[in-house]
Amino acid sequence: MNKLVAFGFLAASNADWVQKERDVTPYEAKNSMWALEQDAPADHTVTMTVALKVEEDRRAMLEKVFWEVSNPKHEKYGQHLTTEEITKLLAVPQSRVDAVSAYFSEQGASWIEVNPNKDMVTVTMPAAAVETALKTKLGFFVHSEHSNVRITRAQAAYHLPEEVAEHVSMVGELLQFPRMRLKSLQNLATGAGTWPNACAASGCKGLVTPSVLAERYKFPSANSSNGASSMAVAEFQGQYYKDTDLKTFGTSCHRDVTVDKVIGGNTQSAGIEAELDIEYIKSVAPNVPLTVIYSSQYSLLNWANQITSLADSPLVHSVSYGNDEVQQTSTQYMQTCNTAFMKAGAKGISILFASGDQGVCGRSGCGLLTHSRFHPDFPAGSPYITAVGGTDFAGTDIGDEMAWSASGGGFSDTFDIPSYQTAAVAAYKASSDADLPPANLWNNTGRGYPDIAALGGQKAPYCITANGMFEGVAGTSASSPVAAGVFALLNGLRATANKAPLGFLNPLIYQNTAAFQDVESGCNGGGKKYCFKAIKGWDAATGWGTPNYEALSKVVMQDAKDSRTIVV
Questions:
Q1: Is 198 within the bounds of a domain?
Q2: Which of 171-175, 224-228, 356-360 has the highest mean pLDDT?
Q3: Catalytic residue among 225, 320, 407, 477, which?
Q4: Rounded to the nearest 5°, which phi and psi values hold at 178?
Q5: Has 273 been annotated as catalytic?
Q6: Which residues contact 2 (CB under 8 A, 6 or more apart)?
Q7: pTM of the model
Q8: Catalytic annotation on 277?
């Protein structure tokens, strides 16, 4: 093993980094909220997800199946693949798996696990061994607003020997920095709502509660799911929950809020992000079994590998984590995640991501004096997941909604417009009501997002229980689990009629737009001059609008194409 191949680059400044795999994407240091604290100790345990090369023709075959089984108008709609069928389709050679596994084993890995599809290898090894194996330097990074959160990342380029590199797409958990919830979106004490407070807690007055959501989105206050449906939320980096908080919230707001299964796990603690997710996905679907998938480190790639490797993966997943596309380490990283998303959809799994909480400018910002280019979000901008934006009530009563000014939305700089939204995006751009921002600020040919929306703004935050106290929390981190809960209910309906789960949702959504409550006002500039306006029909602030469960329940019971005849 002699010649080394560079897979990434992190500049000397601990936040001014670019990744070099197939392209180079700059990331300005001033926009990072992460700072290097110290070098990683030699004996610190590091776990990495090594994505193996998948031949392009095999990836194309996966994508073809993904679209077919996700399209209600296709004869193969709902004919989802098994894990074994996906493994056969990808056809990653065993020699490739063996070569990569052997290399890391020789370099001192204490644990190596190959996923069922043979396209990812999880490796655990001491930091010193990682530094030797990848010719890099690791460090501890801390967050400027969450000083108790520490992650391990590379400080310099990482490499692999040429004969190993030819088998590897990328190595995760080295250069990806997660977005953390901003403190300005939590501990919100007041809300503008004038509706009756249906929770037995004065701290919920004027805030969004389960009963508010049930009235607006027309789902039953209690459902009779037969248990065939299932759902999950993803939590990371100390964001966990307390059973006592869930019980207090459930008792006060008249919902059964319990966690049925935990994958990973942590010491019970009051994590605002986690308790928001759990309390409100269960507020929508209290009788649908909920799994909490927890990891001490944030890794989108590891999470996607995990859920597609489970023998009984929950059918609906809500994730409230992401970053700007420009903050991703490379297009290759995003494409590797997209492959995992396609695997999930091909198996009948629905994935919903929050669209972000910094408006069109994203986490990187658009500058202070001059208005620089917008920063679209990933994974929200991925064509292979469902992105959920945020809204506010237009007035102080339960009724029409408007775009939340800080809701993420726009057009991807990386991915083209997928076929399912071609007409919708074209109509938006052609509308005089859109009053589009200057063309130099966004990508006219990019995938538009979000796809749908739900309440999430600061006008009437969500009332949650955290650490025994009731408080208000805002953000698309609330919107995503609410929307996910609705689709979990719909999967339960389909199960009662022996229909396949919904899987990837976007073709269904874009073919049944009348089942959503259109949002026609507001814009998502996040306080900046330019934004994408919410107008009649699809828009890049709220998508098709917010869910109407009563209408959607009729839509999802219409198809009868549930026979299973796929051969790969």
A1: no
A2: 356-360
A3: 477
A4: -80, 155
A5: yes
A6: 161, 162
A7: 0.92
A8: yes
